[in-house]
Specification:
InterPro entries: NAD(P)-bd_dom_sf, Sc_DH/Rdtase_CS, SDR, SDR_fam. The chain is globular. 47% of the residues are buried. It has one domain: NAD(P)-binding Rossmann-like Domain (Rossmann fold), CATH 3.40.50. The longest helix is centred in the middle third of the chain and has 29 residues. By secondary structure, it is an alpha/beta fold. Helices cover 40% and strands 14% of the residues. It contains 7 helices and 7 strands, in the order E-H-E-H-E-H-E-H-E-H-E-H-H-E. The N and C termini lie far apart (45 Å). Helix 1 links the parallel strand 1 and strand 2. The chain has a 7-stranded parallel sheet with strand order 3-2-1-4-5-6-7, with helices on both faces. Bound molecules: beta-D-glucopyranose (BGC).
Length: 272
């Protein structure tokens, strides 16, 4: 953590990280808190995971609260935003991070699997972004705290551009997030609300544990990553801090890929 409070890039800001109780979300929550933000760590199924992240943040001298909501349910999202307003008065940063995979070969994919993933990954981001934007507009600018009136960061994936057989529900949700993010960025820029995405590649979290189970699987995964290492949640936390801070004040409507080069078509590195 920086020495003096004044050097913290997110001092006096309130942040919500959906799905903050594990994986990339917990890395992002810890990184925002280390820069001085008060962080609401959202969870859907794991109060224990959220409590653990809050504990870690507090042990490092930061401030955090656990907050429950299944982001695919409108009434739960509304209740979560009400709770945040009651506790802290407003919100400055939303990290729309909750996401699931529910994989299946296309021919066997049930409507339930399709809808589960679209509901959490895409509709959940819409509902949370709409409530955050409404709060930013209600509160109005606070230039002493941040140049932008509000910041929304959508957790996308390399699969917003890389097709993914066996995961069409997931890849479709991420392609949808790209247009959701860009259209919101276009519509909300006049209100000085910045909207961007992070496109992580393979980050070591529970969501892709099955692709890293054995040394052979890990080796095969590494062939897709020119930079030669699997990412860590902290790699994404650093990107989120930058996108939430005034350092990126002129950046809106962009996906920042943090993927060790996975989107560089590594299969073409050797003469195609
Ligand atoms: C998925 C991971 C996968 C990575 C790269 C992510 O969006 O959730 O399971 O390892 O993309 O393919």
């Amino acid at each position: 953590m920086p020495d003096s409070a004044s050097s913290r890039r997110l001092q006096h800001q309130i942040a919500l990280v959906t799905g903050g109780s594990s994986g990339i979300g917990s890395g992002v929550a810890e990184a925002l808190a280390a820069e001085g933000a008060t962080v609401f760590v959202n969870y859907s199924h794991s109060p224990e995971g959220a409590a653990e992240v809050v504990k870690k943040i507090e042990a490092a001298g930061g401030k955090a609260y656990a907050v429950h909501a299944d982001v695919s349910k409108e009434e739960e999202v509304l209740a979560m935003f009400k709770e945040i307003r009651e506790k802290c008065g407003t919100l400055h940063i939303l990290v729309n991070n909750s996401g699931i995979q529910d994989d299946s070969p296309f021919l066997d994919m049930s409507l339930e699997k399709w809808q589960n993933v679209i509901n959490v990954n895409l509709t959940g981001q819409f509902l949370c972004a709409r409530e955050a934007a409404r709060e930013f507009v209600r509160r109005g600018p606070q230039p002493e705290i941040s140049k932008a009136t509000g910041k929304i960061i959508c957790m996308s994936s390399v699969h917003e551009v890389i097709p993914w057989a066996g995961h069409v529900n997931y890849a479709t949700s991420k392609g949808g997030i790209m247009q959701l993010m860009k259209s919101m960025a276009q519509e909300l820029a006049p209100q000085r609300i910045r909207v961007n995405s992070i496109g992580p590649g393979a980050i070591a979290t529970p969501i892709n544990a099955s692709a890293r189970d054995t040394p052979e699987e890990e080796k095969s995964l590494l062939t897709l990553i020119p930079y030669g290492r699997i990412g860590e949640p902290a790699d994404i936390g650093k990107v989120a801090v930058w996108l939430a801070s005034d350092e990126s004040d002129y950046v809106t409507g962009t996906t920042l890929f943090a993927d060790g080069g996975m989107t560089l078509y590594p299969g073409f590195a050797d003469n195609g």
